[in-house]
Each structure stands twice: as structure tokens, then as C-alpha cells.
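Hey Z.,

So I finally got round to the 3-isopropylmalic acid thing we talked about over coffee. Here's the setup:
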Amino acid sequence: MNLKIALLGGDGIGPEILAQSVKCLQAVEETFNHHFTYTEGLIGAAAMDKYGSPLPEQTIDLCKASDAILFGTIGTLKYDDNPSAKIRPEQGLLQLRRELQLFTNIRPVKVFPTLVNKSPLKKHVIFGTDFVIYRELTGGIYFGEKKLSEDGTVASDLCEYSEKEIGRIAHLAFKAAKNRRKKLTLVDKANVLETSRLWRKVVTRISESYPEVQLDFLFVDNAAMKMMLDPNDFDVILTDNMFGDILSDQGSAICGSKGLLPSASIGNEHAMFEPFHGSYPQATGKNIANPVASILSTAMMLSHFGLNEESLAVVIAVDKSMRKNVVTKDLNPSSKYGTSQVGDFIAGNIIDSDENLNYNYENIGLGRSTII
Ligand code: IPM
Ligand code: MN
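And the result:
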């Protein structure tokens, strides 16, 4: 298969972890005989420094002309510490999601059996955790009207959703649940928010088309607690932009490191793949950031194009790195491996993936299906 891939490294550790993903994709090309082309684009603080905008036209054009986008991370301390900054790097990512209409963000939360001891939660609570968050990505409070009074003492952010915005992601979430354990939990705050009540109405109506899927509802505060007490109880979580942002970080923490989990942002015409985690500015250029979330995002990309065997080869190579303890310091403080060495190891194991034909899939707890 030929694929045109846009690489948006962004800020902080983004470019270094993305470089590891490219190594892995090159290994996939070599092993499975595909041809991918890679074109870099600027976004975030790097783009602001060069073009004065966090999302230059060239970058939008590049993304629109590509089959898929691999995104690194965004945000720098310079702007985080300056609440009065008029333009912020994060706006580049938000505008891109909106511009490409990437309305569904899919965030699988799966505990690697090898890493179960890294979780802050007890082993028996965490073991077997495997759920996926369907986060609405182009609406809600992130994109509603923002106001600041002239004297700067009163501010507001509008949270707005239409039936159409809720319906399109709900269908995707129900379809995912149908192919999984057939349970969908709508997470909202319907005891307080009008938008949440609309979500309940629309999702309940749509559920009639998916009779095999069990639908239940949880208020977001309760869901956050339940994720700590019994994460195994979740299968598919459907939620709005803001709740999904918060719950997905919580989900990644219970897996042992924020550096592990990938995501896919999907629209009708475009698809972008990005880690859950942020730009970790303190680690920039130190070769210590964990590249796994970015590498697993490429596995999601490969599955998205129906390249399931290729995707599985990436996941198995990642699992091997964990079994052999070829991991960054977030997972093993005395590790001698850095970002780049972990990337090399994983890419090398994709090339040797013939050896994996006899791999014990059940052992790695990933089943034969990939991470999605
Ligand atoms: C994420 C990030 C972004 C978000 C930020 C960087 C704007 O936290 O992808 O989860 O809030 O969506
Ligand atoms: Mn986030």
C-alpha cells in the first residue's frame, strides 16, 4: 500500500518520539512491502516562532493532501506560564481538529500485563483492564464562545452541542461496542447540564438501532471514582470533549505511565494519530521520553487502513520491549535505554517479526485483535 503521511512533531518531546514512530513505520514498509512517504509540517510554538501562527496555511494544506497525520505533542512552558498570551500553541491543535472535522477521538486504555506492577492501583483491580474512550473532539466547551469582560474580571466559555454532533460519534461508539463486549457507558453530568441531557436523549434514541449493546449512564464524578475502583467494568465510554480529556488522562495514569497510550482522531475525510500525553517540556532533547504512545499510535494508523497484521507486528514488538525491559526511565528508573534506543529495539523487532508467528497472543493479553 502507498500512503502519504504528514508528520507534525509539534513542541517539547513531540519530534523525538515521532522520529521513533517513523523508524517503526520504515520497518513495516521493509517487512511488509509497503511504500510510505513522509512530509514534515510545523504546528504549535515552533510554527508561531517561524510564521507567527500556531497553524500555518502550509500545514493545513499538507494535512489535507495526506492520507494520515501523525501528531507528536503540543505546548511549551513559555506560554503555560503566561495566562495573558493572546495566541497559544494549543490553538494550533484545536484548530486542526476542527478544520479537518476530526470529531471522534478514540482512546484505548489497555493494561500491558507486563506492566501491571507499575500501576498505582492494586494488581487485582487493574489486571485485565481494557476499555476505550470515545471522546467528542470538535465541539462542546472547547469551541464555544469565549468571553472576558473589559475589566478582565469575569470570564465565560460556552458549552454547546447539537443533535448532529452527538449522533455521529454515538454511532461510531455503538459500532465499536458491538465488536467488543457490547457495553456502552455514556458519561455526562445530566443532573446539572442541559447539554448532558441532550446527549442522553440522542444516545438513548440511537441505542434502539443497536439492541445487542447494553447502554448505561454514569455521571462524570462517579465515573472518575469508578475508574479507580473497578476499571474492568468499562467497555466503551462515550463522552463529550472536556470529560473525555480529563478521563483519558486518568485512564492513562492507571496503566502505569502517561507515556504508553495512543489515540486516533477520526473524521469522515481525515484521520490523525496522536499520543494521549502532553509535550513534557522538561524532558525535551534529553532522550528520556517514552516513545511507546507514539509508536502505538502508528499501530492504530495501520489498523485504520486495514493493515491489521502490520499493526499487530508493531504491538508485539512493543510488548517484547517491555518483556525484555528495554524501556525508558519512567518504567524502570535504572534503565540505560533512552527514547532512541527503545525506538531502535522496537523497529528491529518488527523487522524480525517472522519470529512472532508463533508468539503467544493470549500471553500478551492483547488477543489477536490489535489495540483498537
Ligand atoms: C489532549 C490534550 C489537548 C486537549 C490539549 C493539548 C489542547 O490535552 O489531546 O488530550 O485538551 O485536547
Ligand atoms: Mn488531554
